[in-house]
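Structure (tokenized):
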């Protein structure tokens, strides 16, 4: 089903001049004496895991999957990859990417969830923060912090079975972001393994350039192995107090009494039903965008009412965000206006979709993106996916030069996150 999509990806990237890693790397020879506390898996099951993601649109086969015991293992893997002229390394969280971003074609995939450090979720009650491994799931952070301490981070994602490092490498948004900012705004310290194989602790005041580069950096500058996240008392259910601050049409009011944990875990029921029907494991051509307030009316008229007039067979999420809640030192690209909207097209197919049906959804997503470009909309892709340097330059705009300089500083041999298709190991500017 997916062969044509993968072939198109390779063609768009013009890979004729790129050495074939499968021919140039004897992976068993390269890794046989690698002294890590974790494990190296060349097996069919592991390779299958490392070559798939939630999107189900791409399949990039790695040479091996590394299951590190801790950050020092990640250091050793990257340093070993640096000894090769072609080997790349991708960090895989819970595999919830859509377009193969956590894959490494004939490279090494690091299974971040396997890190023993993730089992240590250390809450500091006095200073109101939690230290947590980069491969830990936010759902586990929620349970640990709320049930044991009555505390919780301020900002979440709508779906919690995502890894800490994965969401911080993008931003981490939900309906709460308008008030609290993205998840990146709640982080005060990171432990990062850079593309030079160095383990570095960074913050606003210590190694700050790395700190701000990694947040929203799409995994291009380092692998997050630990994050320090601010906490607050977990909210109670003061519905009237909260709604009293809002202006809204009263007849549209709809409420359900839930605990804070049940509210944040609300997508679990959707996932359970989707798994039961078989559609959770089918391809998901999702599209996530930030659209400026100045263009949202036109976007509604052209996209929602025309291109998507027949729906998408799944939820459509739209909610406003404030640019002032985002730090412009982060690597994430945003629309220029103060108010912009998340537009998330969460497409689902039936249990046995045809190749044609999936390709139609992918084509419609591309039509939406090209429509935004043609009409000059102020927009950015969230969880971006492009196939050429020209497109990535347009995405980052006047931040492209800064992004390239950060890559040169923290991953000068372009080892990390090859699945993003921003740089290749023989990349030339």
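Design, position by position:
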């Amino acid at each position: 089903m997916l062969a044509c999509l993968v072939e198109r990806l390779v063609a768009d990237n013009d890979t004729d001049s790129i050495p074939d890693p499968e021919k140039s790397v004897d992976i068993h020879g390269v890794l046989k004496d690698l002294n890590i506390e974790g494990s190296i898996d060349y097996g069919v099951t592991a390779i299958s895991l490392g070559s798939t993601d939630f999107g189900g649109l791409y399949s990039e086969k790695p040479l091996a999957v590394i299951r590190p015991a801790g950050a020092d293992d990640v250091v050793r893997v990257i340093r070993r990859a640096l000894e090769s002229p072609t080997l790349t390394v991708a960090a895989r969280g819970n595999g919830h990417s859509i377009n193969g971003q956590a894959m490494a074609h004939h490279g090494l995939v690091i299974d971040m969830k396997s890190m023993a450090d993730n089992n240590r979720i250390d809450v500091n009650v006095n200073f109101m923060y939690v230290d947590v491994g980069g491969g830990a799931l936010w759902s586990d952070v929620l349970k640990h912090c709320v049930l044991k301490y009555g505390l919780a981070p301020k900002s979440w994602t709508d779906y919690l079975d995502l890894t800490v490092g994965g969401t911080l490498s993008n931003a981490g948004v939900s309906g709460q972001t308008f008030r609290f900012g993205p998840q990146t705004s709640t982080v005060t310290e990171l432990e990062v393994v850079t593309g030079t194989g160095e383990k570095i602790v960074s913050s606003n005041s210590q190694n700050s350039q790395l700190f701000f580069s990694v947040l929203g950096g799409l995994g291009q500058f380092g692998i997050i192995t630990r994050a320090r996240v601010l906490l607050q008392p977990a909210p109670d259910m003061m519905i009237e107090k909260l709604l009293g601050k809002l202006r809204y049409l009263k007849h549209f009011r709809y409420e359900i009494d839930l605990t804070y944990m049940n509210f944040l875990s609300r997508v679990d029921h959707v996932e359970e039903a989707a798994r039961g029907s078989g559609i959770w494991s089918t391809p998901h051509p999702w599209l996530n965008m930030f659209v400026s307030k100045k263009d949202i009316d036109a976007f509604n008229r052209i996209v929602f009412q025309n291109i998507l007039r027949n729906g998408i067979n799944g939820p459509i999420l739209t909610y406003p965000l404030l640019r002032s809640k985002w730090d412009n030192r982060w690597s994430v690209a945003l629309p220029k206006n103060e108010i912009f909207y998340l537009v998330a097209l969460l497409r689902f197919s039936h249990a046995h979709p045809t190749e044609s049906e999936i390709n139609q959804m992918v084509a419609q997503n591309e039509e939406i993106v090209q429509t935004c470009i043609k009409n000059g909309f102020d927009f950015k892709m969230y969880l971006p996916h492009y196939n050429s340097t020209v497109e990535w330059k347009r995405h980052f705009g006047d931040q492209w030069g800064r992004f390239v300089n950060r890559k040169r500083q923290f991953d000068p041999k372009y080892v990390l996150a090859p699945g993003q298709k921003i740089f290749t190991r023989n990349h030339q500017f």
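Reviewer-requested clarification: The longest helix spans residues 355-374. Residues 278-381 form a domain with the Vanillyl-alcohol Oxidase; Chain A, domain 3 fold (CATH 3.40.462.10).
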